[in-house]
Amino acid sequence: MSDAEAKRNPPHSYREVSRIVCHVHHRLSRHVGERLVELGARSVLIEPGRTVRQLRRPRPFGLPGKVVRLEDQPAEVFTAVVDRDEAEAVMHDIIATAELNLPGRGTIYSQDLVEYRRPAQRDGQSDPSQTAPPVSPTRTEAPGVALLRDLALITCILSMSGSGEQLARVALDLGTCVPVVTLGTGTGLRDRLGLLRITVPPDKEIVQLVVPAYDAEGIMRILIDEGNLTQPGRGFVYQTPVRAGMIDTRLRIGAQEHAASIEQIIAAIDELKAGTAWRKRFVGLAGDETDEALRLPRDNREISVICTEGRAETLVEAAIEAGAGGATTSRVRRLSSIDIEGRIAARERSTISVPASICERVVSALLEAARDSDDIADRIEVLDSPAAFTHTT
Amino acid sequence: MSERKPTERKRIEIPLPTALRMLGDYAAARIGEQVRSVAFIIIYLLAFQIVILGSPPAGALSIALGIGLVVLGLALFLEGLLLGLMPLGERVGLQLPKRTGIIPIVLFGLLLGFGSTLAEPAIAALRTAGESVTAWETPLLFLMLERTPEALVTAVGIGVGIAVGFGMVRFYFGLSLKPFVLTIIPLLLVISAVFSFDEKLSAIVALSWDTGAVTTGPVTVPLVLALGIGVSRATGKGESAGGGFGIIMLASAFPILSVLVLAGGLHGETPSPTDEQTFFSPTFREQALKLFESSEELERYAFTRAGETGRRALFEEEAEYHAALEALREDQTTRNRLLGDLSLSEWLTTQASDAERDRFPRIRRSAETPSASGAPTGSAGVGSGSRDAGGFARIFAEEGRLAIRAVVPLSALLLLVLLVLLRDRPRYRDEVVLGIVLALIGMAVLTSGIRLGLAPLGDDVGARLPRVFADSTHGIERVVIDEFDREVVFESIGPDGDRRSYFYLHDDGEPERVRFHPERFDEARSRYEHVVQRSPLFGPELTALGIALVLVFAFGLGYGSTLAEPALNALGRTVEDMTVGTVKRSSVIRAVSIGVGVGLVVGVARIMYNIPIIWLLAPPYLLLLPLTIWSEEEFTGVAWDSGGVTTGPVTVPLVLAMGLGIGSELGVVDAFGVVSMASVFPIVSVSLYGFGVRARQRRAIRDAERSAGDE
User: Fold this and answer.
1) Is ipTM strictly over 0.85?
2) Would you call B666 exposed, middle or buried from its count of C-beta atoms within 10 A (0-12, 13-18, 19+)?
């Protein structure tokens, strides 16, 4: 940026925070949501999703063998923003509240990121959530609950309907974790086709997996292969780091074949070894071999833009103007302890993956676009993304 | 920042062949989907006709064309809904709470609800169902359907308007649907029960419940659904409001109430039901004139719709009656006055009694008389008469007009509200416009295709269906041959020497050999009366099997036609979206279709055994009340909405054809009640399905946690 521009646009103020993501079964979600709000976490968002597990049942009529199929269950995905030093305390609290240490209950993890908000407040409006009381977890940590570190989050954005299940099957076969699937709509190439865009459905399925960091790239490659993501227009996969978390290991439900499930054994060994490093399977894949079509840019950023529903369009446009390729937008809902009578709770979250080189520019463009409205709900989060894949088009 | 819209930015030029290929793939996918949903009912009807009834469908070419149009129309219409109407509705719903308060929202709801009734009046369907309604047996029905249908439409419109308004209030404040259901349904049941005991009002009960079932048409349902989802999302109460479902249910329940109230209001002004003779007699004249504008109209009604007893009863003196007949024979003006649109020969064949016909010797049946073969007298098929060549353009024009009326005003209202009141615009404007156009064309093509192909097929089957369980050969119609020449009779001889007489009869078609019965020959007048005998499909001892077959057919008809309903498809997609794929739309569609199948079985049973409607309405609705209390909020709305979604452009004509066919065979007054049965049982089936889903989820959680206790 030139000097003149720099004077006009001072470097943006940001905060270093943590994003806590928790997905629980639909039936347990009320407690988690309420607890997060009670704890004073900021910007608590909730989104419907589904978890996919393998269901094994004995064949009917006494036939030999087992029927293995995928079982979908409704889940809610909570996202909240807390200060970095409070992240683990909050996570422990939620784990205790929803008993997430038990397999099958859900997953929770935290990611460090950088948050940008609109600097100026108009008309003395202040967002009450920004001045919330500090987080004060009151429940004591459940004994024996240790968070796993060195994890990574793999996010797959898939264009064809049904590919979410397919990818989930691959992930479950690999034994990674319980995938969670949410919906979104994509913008980008499609918008430039004119009316012909109706032949390209915008709906996307977003599959998210929490895996050991060491294996992340290997797993990504397998997902790309098995999910046929090398074909153009199929999808987009990227990885973001996770600070700490507790993963749901109950991948398989139904008939139990042994005294303990393989996941129980893995969890026990994780605890013994105080980490997941022992699980590393894919040796020596750190970025050497490449495929012609397989491009794994090393230095990406994930930018998430959260705004009131209906505004994402404008903001995404601004981002694309500044050089972003496209965005995936999901609808979420805001939970708040403050009475929101008259305040609209519908939000949109758009996720943009950009190379680090243009990240600053895109963020500036977004903030500029956000400045033009008096909507105080706008928020931008930026996360490192060390590996991403998309077809070279 | 520049203000370029997404679509204008760096437009990528796609070469034409690629573009065509993309369009082709896309169109093929959509049409393929609709072929799959329509396949069942088409194959079912054809199979039933060919295999069971043993006769190929008449006019096979036009039926095939009609089916093709149905598939195309469904694909276009559904795409138009998903592309344009539903996003538009959702956008309006989303922005309304942001920019306005609750009062404008409610007013908008009232306007939309009332407007949708005017746009998609289902009154035509109801009138068809009530074709054989007579003024003396069910005067109140006659009044509401025939004399003042505008009052009926207005009452329905008010009901739907209030419903949509209430729905908006519900979402705005995040109220649960359950209290509404638990108040309205018992109220309706109580009123219906009370009415069932009054001789005048009992016939109205079936009509009012049917009205509720048909109100929300294929354009209104997805629109109102999307609107509700938008409002529900914006006001953010989410969970407790059930995510946007529930308006359709209200839009089906409130009109029932308003029709019942209307009936109650008109109750005092109608005469009591009587028999035909009393009705037309001069002593009753004052009462009878409550239903007619003038004595002249009453006379015309007596001639065009009543039988001889009625006509005789009209006049004080017998001589006047004969004089009237004389005048009818001689004087053209009298004919116009008494017969209205009917020509004399038509009247002679359809309405006149034997004695009366005797008074008109040597009046030939002229060429424009409707052919007396192939349709039972007194019952006009739903789609008959529309298959003539050159009629296709006319049909398309008529349906096109109806489609414009259904789609354009509602879309215009929404656009107006969005652009002017809310000062917002839809994300992809060109898609919205395209969607509206597609919905328009699709609806016109769909309804034309139904009239050309599906309805005649249903009519054919419906008309022949009663034969399946008739346990005696009885004449359905007569062909009267004046100037019968004895010379055409020839004889055949059997091995034992017994002789039988036959002659050839051609009646606008191939000559058919017909048995000659000397006793039916009137020597004096050279007239022979040929009674067309239709033998039943099965022998008399197999009637029970026949009835079972009819019921099985009814189930299949309900199931198959519901699979094709576009509004149900839209509902299913919405449910799938809301649950992020946990509940697949095919499961929802199947659950609803099964419910409709069961409902039709019950409806047909009602016609066959003439069970009072309240006995059939009360049990399922009463069962639904505890089911609703126990069900989850999100499924409550979906289940109750399923009831309103089912009766649409595909189901109603088929169901009515079947109902009328059976009804006319049995001489039942009306075919009401079938539609309301097809509306209540899906609610039961979807509620039960919801319980099943919940049980499965609970079990899965238990399974997932099972090892937890060991830790």
Assistant:
1) no
2) middle
